[in-house]
Each structure stands twice: as structure tokens, then as C-alpha cells.
């Protein structure tokens, strides 16, 4: 009986961690139909919307992942983060 409170505490902590990282899990499991709304939000803060959308949609179609937010967070999507241009710069916005 002494282990029961610890089990409940462990379950509670596990649940809280699951909620905390749910955005990361959601970013990594897109369907192709989810790309346009995700890229629209991703490119919403840039003044170069057309090229941002073009490359974001291309990257999303290949990787099925768009990082959360309007900038950064690319480590959430390794494929999106590691796809480079011929010059070695990031292909995905």
C-alpha cells in the first residue's frame, strides 16, 4: 500500500508531460491536407509571403511536418530542418 501514492504521482507527472509535449507530437504527424493551414500560419509574419508559402508547402509535402510558430523551432521537424539548398542554406522557412 505504501507504493500507491507514488504510482498516482508518477501517472500525474506523465500526463502533464504528455500535455506539455503535445504540440511537438502534433507538428510531426501532418497529413498532406494539413499543410496549407500550417504553412499559412508559419508564413503569416513575413513580408515575403509568396516564396515562404511555396517553400513551406514543398517542405511540408516532403516531410509531413511544419514547425510550430512563425519562426524557429525547426528542431521539432528534423527533415524540415535538414533539407538544404545547393548552396547549403536552409530550404524550408
What's the layout of helices and strands?
Blueprint: H1 4-20, H2 22-27, H3 35-42, H4 49-63, H5 78-82
Protein name: Protein RSI-1
InterPro entries: GASA
Keywords: Signal
Describe what you observe in this structure:
- The chain is built from 5 helices and no strands.
- It has helices spanning 4-20, 22-27, 35-42, 49-63, 78-82.
- Helix 3 crosses helix 4.
- 17% of the residues are buried.
Keywords:
GASA, mainly alpha, 93 residues
Q: Which sequence of SSEs, written as H and E, runs from N to C? A: HHHHH
User: What characterizes the major β-sheet?
Assistant: none
Strand content: under 5%
Counted beta strands:
0
Overall outline? elongated
Radius of gyration: 18 Å
Residue share in helix: 40-55%
Given as residue ranges, the uncertain stretches (5+ residues, pLDDT < 50) are none
Number of domains: 1
Secondary-structure class: mainly alpha
Mean pLDDT: 84
Distance between the termini: 54 Å
- Tally of helical runs: 5
InterPro entries: GASA (IPR003854)
Pfam families: GASA
Signal peptide: 1-27
Protein name: Protein RSI-1
